[in-house]
Amino acid sequence: MRFDLTDLRLFLAVADAGSITHGAADAGLSLPAASERLRDMELAGGVRLLERGRRGVTLTEAGEALAHHARLISRQMAMMRGELGEYATGLRSTVRLLSNTAAIAELLPQRLAAWMAANPRIDLDLKERQSIEIARSVMAGFADIGILSAAAAQEGLELRPFAEDLLVVVAAQDDALARMRQVRLADLAGRHFIGLSGSALQDHIAAQAAAMGMQLRYRVRLRTFDGICRMAGAGAGIGIVPRTAARRMKRTSGIAIIRLADGWALRRLSVCIRAGTELSAPAQSLFRHLTQGTPAA
Asked: What is the CATH number of the domain that holds 16?
């Protein structure tokens, strides 16, 4: 039985995503290549590792055993790279950081700028994910550090407070919503939305709507919160954005800001790492910077 590190990383990605398609994407492989590797792993071991169904995949008992050992190997490899990196002066290193949409768009650029300027030999592999995916990826060793909603954290993660993220509704000043102090998502049924394209935050909002049997109707999807605020201010539709973005754009876009009263709209963001893990020196430096002055949660 012979598995290489790519096999093990792919298997863990599939196990954590519950999907060969999503696992292949996280491991940086095409779906056909990933499927062939998984079949070869099962043939090499002489056991079935995955139960394949219409809704995804689950691990067999043998698959659970492989996942356990693969995580141990993944963590050991990360520790080895970190220790070697401390001796490899002059070489570049990379820290893997996952974050939700609000932190990437509104908070991280300012928080990271000074640290990156002071550490010119450290690069960041920064990716946007939903909070629940961030928790799984950090636990599995696919990321060094995550920034997520504390509500999505799971046992085995060490959390430190980072910021509060309050979602608000933005609309034109002459919209009927502008006269309201707060509104719930259910009250917006039938309204036309300006959405965010390819965003973990938009997926989160859509999931909350689906949970109450509501489907959001989008007139257009844009790439930035600024664009959403400008179109909402012009009366093209309404949007849901972080309060920091809405306040920043209020003067230039002419929007009205209405508090979103649903409990899930207030998210306490945390910086997370796997509890008990030994971070590489660059990752330790970034973790200290992001959590400076904040007590452990």
From this structure: 1.10.10.10
Considering the domain architecture, whether residues 80 and 98 belong to the same structural domain is answered as no
Is the separation of the CB atoms in 188 and 206 below 8 Å?
Answer: no
Distance CA 137, CA 156 (A): 12
Indicate if 224 and 78 belong to the same structural domain.
no
Give the count of domains, the chain: 2
Q: Which domain holds residue 63?
A: 5-85
Q: Are residues 176 and 284 in the same domain?
A: yes
Give the pLDDT confidence of 197-235 residue by residue, as tens digits: 988 888 889 999 999 999 999 999 999 999 999 999 999
Nearest one of 265, 253, 256, 293 to 209, comparing CA atoms: 265
Residue the block writes with tokens 């779906």 = 31
Map residue 59 onto helix, strand or coil: strand
pTM: 0.67
CA distance 141 to 138: 5
pLDDT tens track for 230-264: 999 999 999 999 999 999 999 999 999 999 999 99
Residues 99-112 pLDDT 10s: 999 899 889 999 99
For 71-103, give one letter per residue: b (16+ CB within 10 A) or e.
Answer: bebbbeebeeebeebeeeeeeebebbbbbbbbb
Q: Which of 43, 64, 85 is the last residue of a domain?
A: 85
CA 37/CA 296 separation, integer angstroms? 41
Query: Which of 33, 65, 85 finishes a domain?
Result: 85
